[in-house]
Amino acid sequence: MAAAAGLHPDVLARILLLLSCIVDRVRASAVNKHWRRVSLQNPPPLPRLLRPSTAQTETYRIFGGFGDPRPSLSEEGRGSRFCGSAPGGWFVISAEPWRGHALLHLRTGERVALPERVRIPLNSGDITCPMMIRAAVISAAPPSGDCFVAAITSSQTNMAFWRPGMDCWLSPPVGMGPARRSAEDLTYYDGWFCAVDSEDYLVCYKPEIAPAGDGASSLTIRTNAYKFHVHGHQTAPGEIVSHYLLPSASGADLLMLSGQVLFVGRACSKAFDTGHAGSPGYIYFLDDVYTGRPHSVVQQKEYPCADAGRWCYSVPDEMDRCLPWAAPSDTSPCIWYHH
Q: Which N-terminal stretch is annotated as signal sequence (predicted)?
């Protein structure tokens, strides 16, 4: 135990990064002064709130504030619409409504251009058409061979997939498996891209690489669909209900449970274990519902951030507007930054 108490700071920092449970990190920081000092230098991997704009991109640390030390950010993302985020600081962005799609590492400025068109397989032959990304997630950071990108789109198809080396997005074949036209949120979980729609369907997509002859390969999409049976809530006239998918930070679950801190947003949600299964838990939510319906995207002049804050399971009728207020963004809704 004495040897563990004096672990090298680099080794200890790597151990702390593996602790997705907040309470486990608190206990680890209480071992001795050395462990506490290293723990404070390596804060828990809770996401930051990212507020993009053409003027300045700001970050805010939950359980901290704008006054805390902030990571240096590249200027590459200024003026872009942020469509989704992934662990490690990667984002899917759109520089213009229908153009400028890319993967962006916000700290380094590394940028990987994404195609602007999608190929849709039809019985009469393939067609290609322009597309706009509404929300997107990635399976692994580029240039990994495990890197795939899935996007909810505004075009003649609802879903599109890409991997490095492809000059066009690929849509699942029409007539092959379920075709959902109203997907609202998307995440990557246990090797599958999962989308939830406004009709309470969960549709899971698995991109697979198959040999195509002459040493080449082709991308195919395997699809499964599941119907949820939601009870107890009746939508009132004029009420807008949004659906979200929440993978746990540990990768073990795709659930909403008590005893967790949930960070909810379009294509950027994550759940963190508090270590107290019986505790009520909290939901931190963003103002990311577009004009019209949750699954519609309109390039707006202003993206409000007034309807953002925290909700506690144990006090269902109260919302805590605990996130900092700011004027509406002119480029993008706020998004969770998984640094």
A: 1-28
